[in-house]
Write a structure and sequence with these properties.
The protein is mainly α. It has one domain: Orthogonal Bundle (ADP-ribosylglycohydrolase fold). The longest helix is centred in the N-terminal third of the chain and has 22 residues. The model has no long low-confidence stretch (mean pLDDT about 95). It binds magnesium ion. The site of magnesium ion has 6 residues, from helix 3 and helix 14.
């Protein structure tokens, strides 16, 4: 694995977590209220407790799902992917239902991380779908939800599979990861799109080019929405209110990805993009997380302002997951590594 791959993985996971941390303080607030509370520029710093939310929690478990699928199978089938993601998200569900890890946990090492045992406004669709005990698939949809809970956790699919799978396969696997809990096309296809986009960004493409490259892979209505987002960002300075008027608020999957894309295209740098992505009327932690996933994959860790990394207390955990991903990709499998995933 090239050195820049591990930097891209860490960049995507960390910038996503930072966007999520920032957005956690502005989610459920109107832009008018955000400016009243944080000043005319909105929120620009991570304040204590500076924790990430379900978006990052579930993203870390997506990484576990991809790794366990590939420990168990050289070439997992669609049903093996679904099973691995379902198992990983059921681990996340356990972190939402008890206060701290205790007893023999089984499962992956991530279950032993006490900092994950917090409810940070988890999506109701994810909770209810996982509590049903069933796993949705592309052919057997679990509900009619088009919420953004699928796309906001899907980046690790592209980050981990970039060098082993085709774009078509990565798209399908990203969709499968979302379909476990979300049954509407609008909840599923944006997850596949983000998975593929991070691959292109890791390989040096611009965000605009990564959107163009989705042509033929994703449904035309989603493609048109993402193109609109790019055109919006190129036609005027990014500003919170027209952003939501034009692209929606991001509570549903395609809107969340569109807002993140617009912010990634229109910002001067990663910080500027993240700050627009988390200061608007909509689902700011998810749009911040996805925007961070996109730009972090392209720009790496060095693009993330040091003060954000310093003020977010869960950065070491995200870094540890990124290191696990790099170890998995570039070192031979060992019994010790497999045991960390309950294998
Ligand atoms: Mg959240």
């Amino acid at each position: 694995m090239k050195q820049d791959r591990s930097d891209a993985i860490a960049g995507s996971l960390l910038a996503g977590a930072i966007g999520d941390c920032l957005g956690a303080a502005t989610e459920f607030k109107s832009f008018e209220k955000i400016t009243r509370v944080f000043g005319p520029n909105g929120l620009t710093e991570i304040h204590p407790p500076g924790r990430f939310t379900d978006d990052t929690q579930m993203t870390l478990f997506t990484a576990v799902g991809v790794i366990t699928a590939l420990i168990d199978h050289e070439r997992p089938t669609a049903s093996a992917w679904t099973k691995a993601f379902h198992e990983a998200y059921l681990e996340w569900l356990r972190t939402q239902e008890i206060r701290k890890p205790r007893g023999d946990l089984g499962g992956s090492w991530l279950l032993g991380e006490s900092t994950l045992y917090r409810r940070e406004a988890p999506g109701m669709t994810c909770l209810s779908a996982l509590r049903s005990g069933e796993a949705g698939t592309l052919d057997d949809r679990i509900n009619d939800s088009k919420g953004c809970g699928g796309v906001m956790r899907s980046a690790p699919v592209g980050l981990l599979l970039a060098d082993r799978y085709s774009r078509e396969e990565i798209y399908e696997i990203g969709c499968l990861s979302a379909a476990v809990t979300h049954g509407h096309d609008g909840g599923i296809f944006p997850a596949g799109a983000l998975s593929v986009m991070v691959v292109d960004l890791m390989n040096g493409a611009s965000v605009e080019a990564a959107v163009k490259n989705l042509t033929g892979l994703i449904p035309t209505d989603l493609r048109d929405r993402l193109r609109e987002a790019v055109n919006f960002a190129k036609s005027q300075p990014l500003a919170p209110l027209p952003l939501c008027d034009e692209l929606g608020q991001g509570w549903v999957g395609d809107e969340a990805l569109a807002i993140a894309v617009a912010c990634a295209v229109g910002g001067f740098d990663l910080e500027d993009s993240l700050l627009v992505a988390i200061n608007h009327d909509g689902d700011t932690d998810s749009t911040g997380a996805i925007c961070g996933n996109l730009l972090g994959a392209k720009l790496g860790v060095a693009a993330i302002p040091e003060r954000f990394l310093r003020n977010a207390p869960q950065v070491p955990l995200v870094t540890k997951v990124a290191q696990e991903c790099a170890t998995f990709l570039c070192e031979p499998m060992t019994p010790e590594f497999a045991a960390r995933y309950g294998r």
